[in-house]
Design brief:
With 231 residues, the chain is of the alpha+beta class. It contains 6 helices and 15 strands.
Length: 231
């Protein structure tokens, strides 16, 4: 990696400030003044800025309570983005969402810069359970749990959904756990039963539940134990 990029990735300096610091002789590579911003360096080298060691930061993992009207993307011309909520974090542009929600869906979103970790969460192969709280327009049909357990044939699909678990709280409020993540899956599953989802909230992904302390739009780093449980 180029030295100026390394410094801007790990020291908090902008690329321009990094170049300036190198020019001023404030940067040492293995105790020798850096030759220029384009100097190629390796992470195991000793890089110092004004005497302080600048080392790569480890991967980051967060949970966020997604509010309505916020899109699960890094940038969007029209709506606020989930990643925009992280603007106080250093290098927040490296972050991405592990498993998107629709614009109007609320609840648990995992955000990381560790691509392998997020792949384990989103890859269909891993069958990661996702639990949703659903508010329905019409009362839930009596045979809904059986039909979801058998798998539903969604519009424009050739294969049934994986067996899903339904818990009826009252006729208009249910919890649905699915083991895959097709486009608009929960809404389409209820549409296949002739019902309509009015509100959708993700309560958990695998062993991780949304922290009830998090207000809509708030986030916190995952605890080490939570990261490991999903690894
Ligand atoms: N299923 C949906 O229909 N929408 C979501 O946002 C998530 C799952």
């Amino acid at each position: 990696m180029r030295l100026d990029k390394y410094l801007s990735n790990y020291s908090g300096l902008s690329r321009k400030e990094a170049k300036q610091a190198i020019k001023q002789g404030d940067v040492l590579v293995d105790r020798i003044p850096a030759t220029g911003p384009q100097q190629v360096i390796h992470e195991q080298q000793d890089i110092r800025l004004a005497g302080l060691r600048i080392a790569p930061r480890g991967p980051r993992y967060f949970m966020l309570n997604k509010p309505q009207g916020c899109v699960c993307a890094n940038s969007d011309g029209q709506h606020a983005t989930v990643i925009g909520l992280f603007c106080e974090e250093e290098d927040y542009t490296d972050l991405h969402v592990a498993g998107r929600l629709d614009l109007d869906t609320t609840g648990l979103v995992l955000v990381t810069d560790d691509g392998q970790w997020s792949h384990r969460i989103t890859s269909p192969k891993h069958k990661m359970p996702k639990r949703y709280q659903v508010t329905l327009q019409d009362p839930i049909a009596n045979d809904a749990a059986d039909r979801f357990a058998e798998g539903i044939l969604l519009r424009n699909e050739h294969k049934r959904t994986r067996p899903a678990e339904l818990l009826v709280l009252d006729p208009h409020h249910v919890e649905l756990t699915i083991y895959e993540g097709k486009y608009h899956q929960v809404k389409r599953m209820f549409a296949a039963l002739g019902n309509h989802v009015l509100e959708l909230h993700r309560a958990s992904i695998g062993p991780i539940s949304l922290d009830p302390e998090l207000e809509p739009g708030a986030y916190r780093p995952l605890y080490q134990e939570e990261i490991e449980r999903l690894s």
